[in-house]
Write a structure and sequence with these properties.
Length: about 190
């Protein structure tokens, strides 16, 4: 487990590709109206919390996370910085396809949950993702709001809490809420 400042973790709101069950990875997709609602709810949650002095926001540079931050974080007057290390896991040649087609063509992948499926892609490995997310966490100097992606945030939470692969696999990767992480303990604000 890493010794980290207080963190407020947010997955981006629903995108067109989430809704359509397309494989996003690091490809771009805009928020749906539902996704904008997720981000608005996250903004309400953040506004209702007593955030630490000096907090800043670190956001993946992908469109869906920037849109989420614009809706949820910008109204708070918190400084926002984009960081490439917070991008979603690269899924290589799978990106842009549909999950249904991938699973039809590769029946051996059907038994995997989304976390293990993404890590079985021809893109980044778990070790690759842990290296880049770990470097980001080691560079943090104060409390932060982090807006990122489902798999990237799962690995971030795993590193922050000292979780093994099975424990990371079991984590919820939902949208529209805020996870407060202090001293390795998570509090979910819905």
């Amino acid at each position: 487990m890493l010794d980290l400042p207080p963190l407020y973790l947010m997955r981006h709101g629903q995108t067109n590709w989430n809704r359509d069950r397309r494989i996003q990875g690091q490809m771009e997709s805009e928020l749906t109206e539902t996704g904008r609602g997720h981000a608005a709810r996250q903004g309400e949650i953040l506004a209702g919390l007593t955030l630490p002095a000096g907090i800043c926001a670190h956001v993946s540079p992908l469109l869906r996370t920037r849109q989420t931050a614009d809706i949820a974080v910008a109204p708070l007057g918190v400084g926002i910085t984009c960081d490439d290390r917070l991008k979603e896991v690269s899924l290589g040649a799978w990106e842009g396809g549909y999950y249904a087609d991938l699973l039809q063509e590769n029946p051996d992948l059907r038994a995997l949950n989304i976390f293990d499926l993404c890590l079985a892609s021809p893109g980044e490995t778990l070790a690759d993702l842990q290296d880049r997310i770990g470097a980001f966490l080691r560079d943090l100097r104060g409390p932060a709001i982090i807006v990122s992606h489902g798999i990237a945030l799962t690995v971030l939470r795993g590193l922050a809490r000292g979780l093994d692969h099975a424990q990371m696999r079991a984590l919820d990767r939902g949208q529209g809420y805020v996870i407060q992480l202090v001293g390795g303990v998570e509090t979910v604000h819905r």
